[in-house]
Structures
1.
Amino acid sequence: MTAEATPSLVEATDGPAEAGPSVRGPKARTRTAYLRYVAGKLGGAAVSLLAVLVTSFFLFRLIPGDPVKYMTGGRQVSAEQLANYRKEFGLDLPMWEQFTDYCGKALTGDLGTSYQFRAPVIDKITEALPNTLLLTGTAFVLYTALGIFIGTRSAWRNGGLSDRVNTGLALTLYSIPSFWLGLLLIIVFSVGMGPIPGLFPTGGMESGGKEGFAYVMDVAHHLILPVVTLVAVEYGQTLLVTRSALLDEMGSDYLTTARAKGLRDDLVRRRHAVPNALLPTVTLIFINLGRTVAGVILVETVFSWPGLGGLFYQALSVPDLPLVQGLFFVFAAAVIVMNTLADLIYPLLDPRVGR
């Protein structure tokens, strides 16, 4: 074949080739697909938050009880005084007007005024939030690390004695109600049973009258039993998800190739198997991280921990509608935001997601 017969080939080899749309196209399409993916997830989160806002208003109005009568403290009051209370908190307005007022204020960050505390709901939430983050945040770090560590070990020794023991223990503890386990720990280690003396406080966050390092140690002393309760109940879920995901990866060809190259089993697990099996675990971690803000209502109530969970239980007993609504919205919003963050991080862990 001569050059004259193939002018197009000669011209194509003379000089540098220009980068056409075929070179840039895949990257541009990938960016566009990811932006659509992000927009879809953010839009879904916004719709979910709006649904929670609506649900929180109507759901808790089904709770029996009259908050106005609670505010009187059981005293005999006239019908005029009750009417004044209802007018003060807007309970005399039609339901649709209460709803529009609630939504309008909530969108500006105003969650209303607590009936029992006579203080802004957002202030009560801000006051209790650090206590909840201390308790559930400490437990979250411990049970996540413990679950991932034991889950990977159990999967790598699938069917062995340690795997059967760890899996059985995790399933048993995961099925135990947290409040029941908390009460049991209080009876055994706080009150004392037989030869076991009472080693820990029965509840609360501090004994009072202590400062500096002594105060830190006192809070840590009160923290032990509720943290042990949460870790014992929650670590099993992370263990089982990690173990299952790693077992799915262990039959993959790339692990066989890594072993054939002479890599040690520990190296194969740490560098290849575990990173590829962590996607389901990342989902669970973010879900649990959202629940960390909500706290665990039953555990905080059992141990009289002054956090958001205990505040929610206290508000339900009235019912303190603005406080219950505000806490419910914060709890749900934390889970929705963390789930959305997990969805946005997925493409960084697995490029196939979001395309």
2.
Amino acid sequence: MKRRRFSLTRNAALFLVTAALLATSYALTLPLRHRTDSPEASQAAQTSQGSKASKASHASHGSQGAGIRTRSGLLRFERIGNPARTVARDPRGTVIATFTDGARTAVLTGPSRTFAEPRTTDAKVVTKSWVRLLPKPWARGAEQSAWFKNWLRTRLGSRDPDILATAFDYIAGAPARTTAAGVKYSGAARYTPSTPSDSGRAVQGKPKPRTGSDFYDYLGIPWTFPDKVTRRPEKDRARSVDSSGYVRLVYGYRSGFPLNSRDGAAGNGLHRTPDAIARGRLGLPVIPLTDRRPAVIQQLQPGDLVFFKTRELPGGRIGHIGIYLGLDTADHPRFISSRKNAGGPTMGDKGGTSRLDGDGYYAQGLRAARRL
């Protein structure tokens, strides 16, 4: 009897130990299964993995086709509208370049500089915008092309003169510079000089007013255009340009934009007069031409051409053209142009305030803007 009781006790003990082990194993396994099998945990894990994949995909998409690395890292390109354009961002998200569809004008971010003309205004334009010309009009996806990569690498951070700096090569007091051939290509310019013949030349008993001075008048050299037409300067117009002649000097002769010999000439060059440039097909009309002052001008960027209706021309014809500089230190949109009352190129307020806001003569006469 005693032996049987001992045997039952031992079996019971074995059973209890085994049950305890199984219970412990189950207790340890249950939390593990809960942590890995619950829908919440699974969703969180998938979300975490998806987020990492999304970030990797986003970064890949951001630098897709460009592969352009700057000192701060790989650039990311994205599309925005009004007008349609591509912007390049550095790894911090800062826009460092803007390229507009259909235009050769590009705005790059570079070292800060100040433009001023203390003789005629207290205004100053402090800007990091550097306006340069692309080899060809921009098109969506161009950041993937080899020509663009090479172009951008040589332009980012460059201090070589851009459109804005070139424009200031002709204000009063600007130093003269001469080519190796002896041609003075920069220095203070004047407006088309007044002479007795300005009142008109007799043609069948009717006066024929002289046209203004073009860039070749300023240079004092003959110029042959792509259509084989040769224009020769007039001696009394040396170092002078009218408003469109000034734009042709800055964008064409100095910066390499094609030029036409006259309005309506064959080719894809810049026309001769403000009215023809405003109505032409070059670039993009960021402010479409109308017969009234635009209500909004925020879409302008430095380097855009701005067009004005003047008292001299009848109807809705455009009589004046300038180059937009950006906001001055008082937050006024300011431009530079060559005009008669100021005696030549100016961003100042002599002969009319060089602003696009307010009630000044040029602000009220603004009719269009175009990005070449």
